[in-house]
Amino acid sequence: MEATGRAGHPLPYDIYRQAIERETLRFAEMVNGADTATAVPSCPGWTLADLTQHVGSLQRWFSALLTRRVQEPPRSREVDLGLPERAEDYAEWVAAGVPAVADVLRATDPQAAMWAWGEDQHARFWARRMLFETLVHRVDAERSLGRASDIDPALAADGVDEYLVNLPYAGFFAPGVTKLQGNGETLAFQCTDSAAGTGAEWRVRLEPDGFRLQPKAGADAAPSDARTTVRGQAADVLLLLYGRRTYQETAFEVSGEATTLDRWFTHTAF
């Protein structure tokens, strides 16, 4: 099923709920039977066992937050994981958790007020965040095993938006973000594929006191005045932002100052 929606606007909650189940099962199928000691180059120092444990643990943790409807930052991340003793059983453990996660998401009012580390202080934040954590790590697993990856363009564009909207709040676990500054430079990321919304663009302005995502431009807006622009298909832009690709690759059309991009990626890596 393809996602539908406009880039820059969160997709319907049911899209996230269904996509989480689909992406989780794809991840579990990919790593099932693979050598758990396989290195994951996009997550330095991790093996497939580490990656699989992370995906399953994070989903169970997010589900616990949603079940409790937490209203303030939790003081502990302890949750009953039921983690198997053998790393070879981690893939089945991830897949086995899918029904429980689905039940929690179905029982959740996405509009419910709730603490979140990002911009959107509602339960829907966690479903959106869970999806893109799982999706990007599915790509990590595929690349580790030499498999090709595909990402639905509309989901990818929404993932670009989710990343950029929440990045200003990520300093507590990614300290480099707090040092991302400039002198008024504007950086634009554009998606070129029609399924993601041709011309979808996000502009970020770097200021001496930090950076800000600029308001979305309407369809009749003037062409971008960004000093530096990166254009590519939505899936590629999403993976670029997450550090899984580099802007020097032929998948991207870059105009403007490379030094601005270098500064951006130096401070947003996590």
Automatic annotation (TrEMBL):
One Gene Ontology cellular component annotation held by this UniProt entry: plasma membrane
Keyword Protein biosynthesis: no
SUPFAM superfamilies hit by this protein: DinB/YfiT-like putative metalloenzymes
Domain of life, per lineage: Bacteria
InterPro entries: DinB/YfiT-like (IPR034660), Maleyloyr_isom (IPR017517), MDMPI_C-term_domain (IPR010872), MDMPI_metal-binding (IPR024344)
Presence of the UniProt keyword Thylakoid in the record: no
MDMPI C-terminal domain location: 155-263
Alphabetical keyword list: Isomerase
A Pfam family hit: MDMPI_N
A Gene Ontology molecular function term of the record: isomerase activity
Domain Mycothiol-dependent maleylpyruvate isomerase metal-binding, chain residue ranges per copy: 19-141
Name listed for the protein in its UniProt record: Maleylpyruvate isomerase family mycothiol-dependent enzyme
